[in-house]
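Researcher: Go.
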Amino acid sequence: MPCSTSRWVPRISPPTLLDNDERTAGGAEIVHFYQMPGYRSWDPSRVIFFSFAAFFAMILADAGYALLLLGALLFFSPRLKRSRTGLRVRTLGFALVGFAFAYGVLAGSYFGWSPPPESWLSHSRLLDVNDFGQMMQLAIGIGLAHLIVANATVAWHHRGRAAMLAPLGWIVALLAGVMLFYGMTGGAVAMTLGLIGVFVFTDTRPIREPLDLLKRVGGGLYALTDVTRAFGDVLSYLRLFALGLASASLAVTFNQLAADAAAAFPGLGILLNALILIVGHALNFVLAVVSGVVHGLRLNLIEFYHWGISDEGYPFTAFAKTETTPWSN
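Model: Structure:
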């Protein structure tokens, strides 16, 4: 008599092995630290490597601080070379320094000092951290781009299947939000089409009975509740502007305090000037680095992960042969 089999088959989830180019494998160390993607998902390591470096640079917002960070990295470099993980972190550190220095030059900030308008350094200044309108547009634009990359990668991962139309719908909806904000024609139509794509294709289970149809409708409606989250996630990138402005403002403030102390106390003022500059900039540097790490990782591992990574996996661990010495009398 043949045995009956159940229609439900458990889905086996193999361990995940991230295989990255060592030049960008520092992103894999971040992924390992936070959440390993599922075996059937995609590897976000390279995207996180570059986006984390960019976010860190916008929060540090000073070329002089980037050089301080370079000095600290070179000091710890011999110790980092001793392991593969250390080498990856070292490479990521150099990327952070490079991005931070480039952004600091574009922002025209060197330990809070702005070069004179006639100097050659001033010609490289393209950003003004005190221009709220410009910096808010930059931060929101970067946030939109980051979330679009997440959805586009998910769509590519599901290419050839109906499920790819849901993330494409979110991309259309995000761009439609920009169109509506600037009063562009067709924004409402684009938003409607994008959300219809999300509603119809988020749940693509085959319909074999009425309950399956009800579940698909429920899945689509539940996906539409992410509209408010999408709005909040995009605005969350304003922290790049706010923290960068705070870092730059503190640097300028310490410079002004040091100058006032030098002018108010002749002779002794020189010592006070140096003390305020050293302590003030050291404190601001530490705060900026901590903020850059914490919030740079947050935008990648909370906002970006929500839209790009759906399954959580566990890391692959290679089998190892161990030799034991038998106990002898």
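Model: The two ends are 58 Å apart (CA to CA).
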